[in-house]
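dumping this here before i forget
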Amino acid sequence: MSLSNTPNSDATNLDSQDRQTELCRTLNDRLRTTFTGGTIVATQGVRALEDKTLNQLMPAIQSFSAFTPDNDPYGEHDFGEVTIDGVRVWFKIDVYDLTLQYRSPDPSDAAVSKRVMTLMLPEEY
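structure:
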């Protein structure tokens, strides 16, 4: 009988895809919760909201945690919806290459990626 010194991979190691998803989720969460690690843009509809609503919007996005298989099927925390004073606002994080022209070659690697979080009204999609 041979015993291996390698821990059970199911219990202690994430496979490569899981590690990439976890890294991507961490980078997306950093942008969403601290507004660092990327750029935030808002559509014309969001910019036109009342000041009272806008003042509540950013804290609501920062504290958002209602990720579900429906709104986050890949576990990357790249999309969500908040409702402020009856107004629904979506946030969507996209990950581009360093030139912001193409999709990132590796969204889990901040060294080759730029994140952009877009705030939009559902009717603007």
